[in-house]
Amino acid sequence: MTTRPRAKAKKSPSPARRKGARPVKTRKRKAPPPGERLKVAILSRKASLYSTSRLVEAVRAHGHEALVLDTLRCDLLAEKGRPKIYYEGEELSGISVVLPRIGASITRYGLAVVRQLESMGVPALNGSDGISRSRDKLRCIQLLAQAGIDVPRTVMMRERAHLEGAVDRIGGLPVIVKLLQGTQGVGVMLAHSFDELESMLDTMWNLEQEILLQEFVAESRGRDVRALVVGDRVVGAMRRTARVQGEFRSNIHRGGLGELIELPESFAREAVRAARVVGLEVAGVDLLESSSGPRIAEVNSSPGIEGLERASGVDVAEAIVAHAIRLATSTPPPHSPRS
Ligand code: ADP
Ligand code: MG
Fold it and tell me: Which atom of ligand 1 sits closest to the CA of residue 184?
């Protein structure tokens, strides 16, 4: 499968230095001596989850120690100069690298834990800044659009009287309505008429939920491409197709079917760029197949790997872990300017 974009040929700058990426905070971090057994922490609610258990397997296959930490059982202690984490009463120490798998329902707590680990000098894939950006769909779209990446035209508005103008600006009905924090297809709707749209907006605004309106990329109805980016390359990709009659969302969690595809180079390149702009080392990028080429719908920071591994046969967990080990064992740059 030719998923590696050709742009990769020249040596890329260190992850911490890439344009748009927040630097991995490297306070006092030293690369461990070569050959040392690493302690790889995986933040996850449950060790039995598919992605978590596959990551554990991959860490062990490298001969390193895997430590699954339930995010909500991490107690944080901040005091002058000595950030600490206690887990089941014990102080955590010696973690070489952390792989956060933060579910959308615990984003806030998860981010606090990742930030604490970063402040202890532990490199994180993904880092807290990237995770935080990825959890706000509008923030992501703003960053991608600003970087010149093709995204569906998107508006945010809060004034009912502006509705017709807003719909006009994104190409007319039907339009996609998205919650800023939705995931797995929940919180993504399609409105075919102004009546339908108004009732959706009334409901959302009454619940104090911000929404965005988005151009419906009709050519891509019921299907999209999920590309899994690790570092500078796409390690696996699949086309997802909705199987339920009338369903426009292709998420696997909504019953979508994943199939292996030969990823066009333009898709791979855009997926890698999108991950970089959001500041993610590991990203599940959703690309819509529009008549003018790939358009990015979304960038996920804790992408599930089950659907992709099953559809593509690619060992995605191994690719993620190998990248984490590379990052943990590379010497951090002497000074990482904040971007
Ligand atoms: P989620 O975080 O819930 O996965 P997405 O933004 O990825 O949210 O949208 C879910 C699905 O809806 C996508 O996988 C795609 O199939 C469909 N979709 C999203 N945005 C558009 C759009 N602008 N035009 C057409 N289909 C879309
Ligand atoms: Mg998605």
Answer: 3
